[in-house]
Fold:
Amino acid sequence: MTPSSLFPAAFRPRQRRRLAARLCAIAALLLAGPALAQLRLPSVNLPALPSAGPLAQDVLRPLAPLLTERLDLQRTLLRRHPELLETDPAGRLMRRAELLWVSPTPDALQAARAQGFIVLREQDLSELELRQHVLRPPAGMATAEAAQRLRAIDPDAPVDFNHVYLPAGGTATVAHPVPPSGTTRGVTTARVVGLIDGGIDRRHAALASAQVTTWGCGGREHPSSHGTAVASLLVGREGGFRGVQPGATLFAADVYCEQPTGGATEDVVRAMAWMAREGVAVINISLVGPPNALLERATRSLVARGHVIVAAVGNDGPAAPPSYPASYPGVIAVTAVDGRNRALIEAGRALHLDYAAPGADIAATNAAGRRVKVRGTSFATPLVA
Structure:
């Protein structure tokens, strides 16, 4: 594997200079902003990247899986569950044969049914001032073609695929716990924060002092390592480990429920409506995926109501397409640095970038109750939220 094939754009001098300029701007923002005193967010140093010649194998080897982690997960899900999942024309993961129709008129719904569409689910999300419908295309019709049919029926009602959003970071168990760098000085003032992610293990000692309210999965709990790790960084406290808001009130929405189709747009938006209903002012979303009409409308509505959405930029590398919801206007987009304040080489990008925070060389708690080493923009996001 050559450097150009692994990092097709990030190592070109022109793009590298642009990335350096962006990161310098972030550092200046952090040093000037009042959040620095509260969160102790670091300035950002561009990783030392060779400008020419082959990269050493000891550098390439650990970086390659980090840059392909989410894509590998997508391929695995497609291979194991082809009856439930497919990709849209751009190759992005979605629920098979499902379309989202945002607030169509009653006449439009009747016309769609007359053409053979089946309404699978519909829900009034009054908190977000929209109504979502999930439709199945007529038999034998491709999902992309069906989307065009619905747009023709009601051009004013947005139509999109039921995309699936995936976590923006991973965990690995370590024999000797790594200090929770960047989270040891928690703010003790009582706060309320929201989390849209996988399920959390709220019975774990690290979350025992937090006030936790959960949503999703029909009331059943499905703890996940990713969700629990992010929650521990938000509100955890155990021994020498402290999240940024130990003992705070956490509203945690599980949008996965251990299902292969978990993380779908409709579930993320339903979770956002719940956050609005509960009046949760700050919401952490450490999930990434493509732009989506329903998600965009929901995000716009939350931001207009005064909610703060803090989202990860993902770990697909600096040459990847912009990630969502981090790229939507009004969303706080977060990237990550390591323990030496160097930007993570696998960190993705958004259409804008607001903060950098520690996302490597830190520890969190997983669903098995063990201290784990975490890496990714997923874990920088709660430090900002």
User: Anything to note?
Assistant: The longest helix spans residues 57-80.
